[in-house]
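agent> fetching stored inputs for the adenosine-5'-diphosphate docking request
agent> found them:
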Amino acid sequence: MPIANAFKRQKEFVADASHELRTPLSILQSSIEVIESEEKGKLGEFSLQVLDDMKDELKRMTKLTNDLLWLARSDSNAITLTKEWFPLFPVVNELIRKCRPLAEQKQIRFTVHMQEDIMVYGDKERIIQLMFILLDNSVKYNNENGQVSIKVERNRKNVMIEIKDTGIGIPIEHQKYIFERFYRVDPSRSQRQQGYGIGLSIAKWIVDAHGGTINVQSEEKRGSRFIVTLPQPTIIESEG
Ligand code: ADP
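agent> prediction call returned; pasting tokens
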């Protein structure tokens, strides 16, 4: 079927292009680092600003390239999960540390409600990636002086992770589409946050791959709540 073929070729192109872009992007990254470490003292204010802008653009391009490559790999079933037991509390703290620079620009406060000894069974790297996507959004789409709260609860069968923000919210008619690839709610309101509508589709992929669920409850101008539930093996006590 010609359309199916064209679609397949397009996907292959995205996979190849994003793969090919990684090397030049990482060369650019290290070149900027060299200039920064060796020439910074000699540069004037304007050049320093240019350098900063280049770093931001490069970061965006690298993220897009990695996300596209990730989607291509997930399409071709090239991503496998490596599951293990791990403590979630240090992961949450590390993620908050990572989100802090952006959060501080907007004076956003984080609160965490979870028992420190909660163990989770799953692919640690993927779960970090999932939580980062949700946390990053809860900061990006938040208001000045907003709040982000992270709640984790475990029962015998599931772990429930809830990330709630006091941000701009998502209109009800858009809520069922936000987990689709490249879907962005009203690009004009999201324009300042230069994303590509990929994050939540990756988040959904990770949750599905763990056999879990992800849901959103949101009200415009009030905020959003993302709830992830991941099924857990019942025997946890034997670990650690
Ligand atoms: P991106 O943020 O790169 O646009 P995502 O897939 O992560 O892509 O999100 C899709 C869309 O869902 C966003 O463009 C945004 O409009 C909306 N969205 C996601 N998270 C939130 C949130 N916490 N608050 C408000 N809107 C959100």
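agent> quick read of the result: Strands lie at 83-87, 109-113, 119-123, 147-154, 158-165, 213-219, 223-231.
agent> awaiting further instructions
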